[in-house]
């Protein structure tokens, strides 16, 4: 029988160990994007099962995986982030920039650290940078970046975006380049 998302999350949290679990909970509490998790809720978490329950109850089953991956990457637990991506079947529905700008839209994205990518994009204005950062989810941020700014940035802009993606999302780019 296939594992549930909650079981995959619990496995990842077990693998983190006490120190990284503490860092994960701290980063989760400091997260500015809605829905936010209150410190009181985090303080009630006693073990990996409680943490998995909190993630699923707060972010839904589908939403808990991207948020968990985002936090794992932020605290430097990239191995666990990749493992969770692979085990849960997180996938990218676009494989190149032209597909990403099609009328079907982006759908679910594997790019979670959009802010780090934005920091490298010197071809965008400060206003565009602020507007994209203000968006709530990584998927909306990438959609805004690809459908607006990068669509009109030309080859230079796309080259800069590609380099930024390669620097911050190397596993994703390697996966896409294999296909």
UniProtKB/TrEMBL annotation:
One of its GO terms (cellular component) is canonical inflammasome complex. CDD domains: CARD_ASC_NALP1, Pyrin_ASC-like. SMART domains: PYRIN. It holds the Pfam family PYRIN. InterPro entries: CARD, CARD8/ASC/NALP1_CARD, DAPIN, DEATH-like_dom_sf, NLRP_Inflammasome. It is found in: Inflammasome. GO terms for biological process: inflammatory response; innate immune response; regulation of apoptotic process. Residues 109-179 form the CARD domain. Keywords: Cytoplasm, Immunity, Inflammasome, Inflammatory response, Innate immunity. PROSITE patterns: CARD, DAPIN. This is PYD and CARD domain containing.
